Amino acid sequence: MSEAPTADRATVAARLRGEALDTLVGLVLDHLLARPVAELVDVDFVAEPICRALDTAARDPRTRSFLHEQLTAARGQVPAGCPRDTVPAEVLAPLRTVLGREVIADRALVQRLLDHEAAQTLVTDLLQTSLKRYVEKLKPVASTVSSSVQRSAGFNRLKMLGQGVRGIGEGVLGGVSRELEHRAEQKAREFVDGALHAAMSQVADHVCDPANAARYADYRIHILDTVLDTPNRQLVHELEKFDPDAMVDLGLELAGALSRRDGFQDELAQALRQALDATGGRSLRDYLRETGLDGAASTDPAADWQAALQERIAAEARIFVDSPAFTGWLDGLLAP
Questions:
Q1: CA torsion, ordered 76, 57, 267, 42, to nearest 10 deg
Q2: Mean pLDDT, to the nearest integer, of 150-174?
Q3: How many CA atoms lie within 13 A of 100 on its CB side?
Q4: Burial of 1 by CB count in 10 Å (0-12 exposed, 13-18 middle, 19+ buried)?
Q5: Which residues are within 8 A (CB) of 223 and not within 5 positions of it... i.e. 6 or more apart?
Q6: What pLDDT, on the 0 to 100 scale, is given for residue 172?
């Protein structure tokens, strides 16, 4: 390959460092923004490497090691303080507004969510504990009754029959007391078993009652404030209980299982194709215009993000123009 004329190379390189490069970048951006979104994405080309990447990541032990290393590093970088120290007020204010809305949940949905052993056991334990405490409060009453019986004339006559008869009498009274306590506890269990369904329904009614909407809105904000004011290290400690290392391994196993499942690539391609069909031939510029992000209606120069993006790309391109790699490519392009 003969060497390119020095004057031609120098002239082209100089022009690319000037306005010509800005113009070229602007033309490329305009072209991309004007193209229909569906034409910018080759569905089959995108789906195939995604599946391959998932499979490779799941099989390659270096991926697993890298993720575990990043997780270990993150554990050692937990900042002091609590989340509220770093959450901007501009984010927190609208978040509190959303959580504070007085919404009314769907009654049937709440009932299905409560239809689980964990929720039922919680309500059962609460009812049984309350009734058991009530039975405990009745024991002094039973003792008082027992003492009254012992002070009665009939019992005093029994005492006169001797020590053995007195022991029998006290044993009978104690047995009666224990039997009453046993029956009370049994009745409490039977009552709880029978009242469980009604109690769960009452919980669902309470959650979905419009009269309680404000209380639950305040409760959601209370949960947010509690999390924001909890030390970061305590929150991380709670997350550690889910064993993040095991979650990484599980995620990789799921990724591998998906990538190897028959028909997954076709399903992914079909999902992408449906999403692109929904664009209806619109371009990126159309979406920007519809959402008001194109900056056309703004008088603020900072709102013209395309100009800022074009300037940034052009700056990086100028660095590339001065690189040996570009110089070699340009020599080959301009060679006779």
A1: 100
A2: 48
A3: 10
A4: exposed
A5: none
A6: 46
